[in-house]
Specification:
Blueprint lengths: L4 E7 L5 H12 L7 E7 L4 H13 L3 E6 L5 H11 L4 E4 L5 E2 L3 H11 L5 E9 L6 E5 L5 H7 L12 E3 H6 L10 H11 L4 E12 L2 H6 L3 H16 L5 H16 L2 H10 L3
Parallel strand pairs: 1-2, 1-4, 2-3, 6-9
Antiparallel strand pairs: 4-8, 5-9, 6-7, 6-8
Length: about 270
């Protein structure tokens, strides 16, 4: 019998209505359909976003919208969304990315074949403007033991394309507030809690990005936020002091580089 699953979105006011439409279309045109699609409205939205939501509510009975009175941030919005997901298996989706048509079919097939796995992600293709304009592919290791080691240096899961077991997420404390690192923090806690991970070795999603993303990943503020995160990993025993020093040295250098050099590093060497 096919495993049922929910899809979880979080949306806030600054997002693009056209991108939201593309993202929703990619979900409702899958070769394997979800039981429900849950969208959390993280605070008040623009009229344009509300119009898109109303249109899809009329077209798709499985589409459910949960409003939050105030903007809570991604982590808190997703925790609220998990409460409304009726299935134990939950697929995450961002409101500006585009899922490939067989994304869910491929991921559910892995859950059915390996029932002990708790988290499944895949590679993603990063594009600018149009999905024909692929600039890089973000690849990740396949097997759990390699994912565990990889996580000591970099985030081991592509969050926009992840599918996980809700009970395993809740057992590990759910999404906790850690600006810029909510998902990475969750994966570390799940790994330390014994959850099993797997990354499909092909791209199942088109990830939208721009040069602004590289600007956001630079500067002293980002560097010090990352320092706090790396220190947390050391404090809970996930990484050694030696790995902490290595990570901070490499990452601090990347954060203070000029934006165009940092962009080149991401596109050519960190993918």
């Amino acid at each position: 019998m096919q495993l049922d699953f929910s899809v979880l979105f979080s949306l806030y006011s600054k997002e693009n209505p056209a991108f939201l439409r593309q993202s929703l279309d990619s979900i409702f045109c899958q070769t394997l359909a979800p039981v429900e699609v849950i969208l959390i409205k993280d605070g008040p939205l623009t009229d344009e976003l509300e119009n898109v939501i109303s249109e899809y509510l009329m077209k798709y009975p499985m589409f459910k919208v949960i409003p939050l009175m105030k903007n809570q941030g991604l982590g808190k919005a997703l925790n609220e969304g998990l409460k409304h997901c009726s299935c134990d298996i939950v697929a995450r989706m961002d409101t500006d990315d585009i899922a490939k048509p067989n994304r869910f079919e491929k991921q559910i097939a892995i859950f059915e074949k390996y029932p002990d796995i708790d988290v499944i992600s895949s590679w993603i293709e990063e594009f600018e403007g149009d999905i024909l304009n692929i600039s890089s592919v973000k690849k990740l290791p396949e097997l759990h033991k390699d994912i565990f080691e990889y996580a000591k240096g970099r985030c081991p899961i592509n969050h926009p394309v992840v599918m996980f077991k809700k009970n395993a997420v809740i057992k590990s404390g759910g999404y906790l507030h850690f600006p810029l690192f909510e998902d990475y923090y969750l994966w570390i806690r799940m790994l330390m809690n014994g959850a099993k991970f797997y990354n499909i070795q092909e791209s199942l999603l088109y990830f939208r990005f721009s040069s602004d993303m590289f600007k956001r990943r630079g500067g002293c503020k980002y560097a010090f936020d990352e320092l706090r995160f790396q220190n947390m990993m050391r404090h809970i025993g996930f990484i050694s002091l030696q790995m902490f020093i290595r990570n901070i040295t490499i990452r601090f250098m990347v954060r203070v580089l000029p934006n165009y050099i940092r962009a080149l590093l991401y596109k050519k060497f960190l993918r």
